[in-house]
Write a structure and sequence with these properties.
heterodimer, A: mainly alpha, MetI-like fold, globular, B: D-Maltodextrin-Binding Protein, domain 2, D-Maltodextrin-Binding Protein, domain 2, 2 domains, 18 helices
């Protein structure tokens, strides 16, 4: 019986394993291998082993460092706005008396739209004579350059990304909110708790596991920022929206420097993995505290 | 034990099926029209079969097969590319590594040097003087690397300095004759004169942007060339003293002046010229067709491209497009050269114009297309191309040169940073890419 099971299991699992090996694990290993070489796409025969030279060089490369900090800036703007925004929207919809479905769909629509389409759309919105500037003009505020200025381009794109992505996390939070037992709120009401207290002591702790999930996925998503700057600004003006993934793409496919691009990809991966582990540790600890508290209260 | 066996069998089965994807020898009869006694020639093109351009290539290949029936058989494969060249170039890169390059492939003009330097394409079989004289000089120049001819294109291109006739006439400005273009100083005076006039119309004298991508170097490198500058050395392996030369710094400062004095909008405004709110615009030759078809209210003219103050009649205007080349993988260089000649020849040139409104690359094709005789704007663009066309820099690190040029425009001309310092920085970055070719 057991043998039969394992054969059956293998039959289902085998193809997936082979495909994953061929198209995921093997490329990952190759990338790691290439990262120590000067592999050049146009002339693979002339590949030399360079040891850690690439790793030293990319940190000396002003552009890579710049793209790194740009990416961090994107993350710092997007993560709080998108997580907080999603929670706010979810609570608003949860409380809404009418048209719940309508708002749910309205906020979710951008998520299903292609990023390239959304970016093109927002280029019109942000354009010097676009809707936003016309609105500002009516309010007596002078026209803003938005994506055409080195100082405003990054926040402009970040805000657009939040608008595009927030619906997805909102749906997750909404599901979480509907799972909180109404009894908890009823009990709080009997104690005359303020709505802030209810939010802080019931809603947030109950949503904690979801918060962790949303927090981590949004962070990783924000780190992978590529399409929006590619479509809207081409990484400009003056490299202000040039991200790491964009740099990897340009180095590897436009300039054919596969070796160098692999090094960047490895460094990027290590960074994101380390960050995720840290996030996990931090949030887990708090969750532990929360469980302790609960136990004590009981 | 059995488990392991099963696992291995599955693996081998899958690997086997993947290996089956590899290119196999094509024999007569495998492809329709490929007959016994003919030499098989594969050709890759960078477009989609359903587009006008793709159809034009297809028809050219069909007519080649007719003309060389019994001798050669060409088989065309369409490989789509995205705007920045991905897709098609990915396929080429993969084939360089894994083998399976076709006999003939298309390559973008500025990439000829990189492909040649890395042995992806090989020099064409010798062309006679007569055969060469068919082509515009800019096409031969574009396809030559290290004094050998590698590629011939069916398409040429040009950029026009367009003007709005109604506005220019109303402002009382005289457009100079071809061959006697405005110099930088003269053009600044014209812009100054036009500024209040255009402000009344809620516009700018000049509809100009420095977009990311190939357009910036394509449109604005002429300012460098006509000022006696160059972007790379003759062999394409040195940029220090070229890219950051004083002539080029002066060109960047000239653009800065245009931005600073408000002759153009800092942030690009959509359809400024097309809506009659700008007097001048630099754009590709396709703009003529766009204006004729979509903005019939605009009375369009083509002015000679502006030149540096010390211009002495050198070639300087934009040119270049995709071309056909023989890959290093072909064993039949004679046949591949015949195919390249046919694909870029007069008949194919006329076809590419008729189907996709792209400029052809031979004198005879231009002579046979009526509109280049009758329409003053097309004629002006053709005259500019044949008399003053200058290919883009020929260097194996072209992509970095192109990116750097645009970056300097953005940071120095738009952003107001020091042009010399920005260009020195670019030189450093380009040098890092050049190292691969210079260390040897």
């Amino acid at each position: 019986m057991r043998k039969k099971n394992s054969i059956m299991g293998m039959a289902f699992f085998g193809p997936a394993l082979v495909l994953l090996t061929l198209f995921l694990f093997l490329p990952m290993l190759l990338t790691l291998g290439f990262s120590f070489t000067d592999y050049f796409a146009l002339n693979p025969e002339l590949t030399h082993f360079k040891g850690l030279e690439n790793y030293v060089n990319i940190f000396k490369d002003e552009l890579f460092v710049r793209s790194f900090f740009n990416t961090v800036k994107f993350v710092l703007i997007i993560v709080p706005l998108q997580c907080g925004g999603a929670l706010l929207l979810a609570m608003a919809i949860n409380h809404a008396a009418h048209c719940k479905k309508y708002f749910k769909v309205a906020f979710f629509v951008p998520v299903v739209m292609s990023l390239a389409v959304v970016s093109t759309l927002w280029m019109q919105i942000y354009s010097p004579e676009g809707i936003l500037n016309t609105l500002l003009g009516n309010l007596g505020i002078s026209a803003q350059p938005f994506i055409h200025s080195a100082s405003q381009a990054l926040p402009s794109i970040a805000i657009m990304s939040v608008w595009q992505g927030v619906g997805y996390q909102m749906i997750i939070f909404l599901g979480g909110l509907q799972n909180i037992s109404p009894a908890l709120y009823e009990a709080a009401e009997m104690d005359h708790a303020s709505s802030w207290k209810k939010f802080k002591d019931i809603t947030l702790p109950e949503l904690k596991p979801l918060c962790v999930f949303v927090f981590i996925t949004v962070t990783i998503g924000a780190f992978r920022m590529l399409v929006q700057p590619m479509v809207m600004t081409g990484g400009g003006p003056d490299h202000s929206t040039y991200t790491i993934v964009y740099d990897i793409y340009e180095t590897g496919t436009v300039n054919w420097e596969m070796g160098l691009a692999s090094t960047m990809a490895i460094v990027f991966t290590i960074f994101v993995v380390v960050l995720t582990i840290i996030q996990n540790l931090l949030t887990k600890e708090k969750e532990g505290n929360h469980a302790d508290k609960k136990a004590k209260a009981h | 034990m059995k488990k392991r066996l099963l696992c291995l069998t599955t693996l081998f089965l899958l690997l086997g099926s993947l290996a089956g994807c590899q290119k196999k020898e094509i024999r007569p009869g495998d492809v329709e029209g490929f007959d016994q006694g003919e030499a098989y020639l594969s050709i890759w093109v960078h477009s989609i079969e359903d587009t006008e351009e793709g159809q034009a290539y297809k028809e050219s290949v069909e007519s080649f097969n007719e003309a060389y029936d019994g001798q050669y058989f060409a088989d065309i494969e369409f490989i789509p590319r995205n705007d920045s060249g991905g897709g098609y170039s990915d396929k080429i890169n993969a084939s360089v590594m894994a083998g399976g390059l076709p006999d003939v492939l298309t390559v973008d003009g500025p990439n000829v040097a990189a492909y040649a330097a890395n042995g992806i394409i090989q020099p064409l079989a010798e062309l006679t003087k007569e055969e060469q004289s068919v082509y515009l000089p800019s096409i031969l120049e574009q396809g030559t690397y290290d004094d050998r001819l590698y590629a011939l294109g069916v398409m040429e291109s040009s950029v026009g300095m367009y003007y709005n006739k109604a506005l220019i006439e109303e402002a009382g400005i005289q457009i100079p004759e071809p061959g006697n273009p405005w110099t930088w100083t003269e053009f600044l005076e014209i812009l100054e004169e036009l500024k209040p006039f255009m402000e009344e119309r809620n516009g700018y004298p000049l509809d100009m942007t420095f977009p990311v991508g190939e357009a910036s170097i394509y449109y604005y490198a002429p300012f460098v060339w006509s000022n006696g500058g160059d972007l790379v050395s003759g062999d394409g392996l040195t940029v220090e003293g070229y890219f950051n030369a004083p002539e080029n710094v002066a060109a960047m400062e000239y653009f800065r002046t245009i931005v600073e004095r408000g002759y153009m909008s800092q942030a690009p405004i959509d359809k400024l010229f097309e809506s009659g709110r700008a007097a001048f615009k630099f754009d590709g030759a396709w703009e003529v067709n766009t204006i004729y078809n979509s903005y019939p209210d605009i009375d369009l003219g083509v002015a000679p491209y502006v030149v540096g103050d010390n211009w002495k009649g050198e070639r300087y205007t934009p040119t270049g497009s995709w071309a056909f080349a023989a890959s290093s993988g072909t064993k039949n260089i004679e046949g591949a050269t015949e195919l390249v000649k046919w694909m870029s020849g007069v008949e194919s040139g006329i076809r590419i114009w008729e189907m996709s409104k792209t400029f052809p690359s031979t004198y005879e094709a231009f002579a046979n297309i009526e509109v280049f005789q009758t329409d003053e704007n097309y004629k002006a663009l053709y005259d500019q191309l044949s008399s003053y066309g200058h290919p883009r820099p020929k260097t194996p690190v072209y992509p970095q040169v192109s990116t750097s040029f645009q970056e300097v425009l953005e940071s120095a001309a738009l952003g107001g940073k020091d042009a010399q310092a920005e260009m020195d920085k670019s030189v450093e970055r380009i040098n890092a890419k050049l190292e691969r070719y210079t260390r040897k």
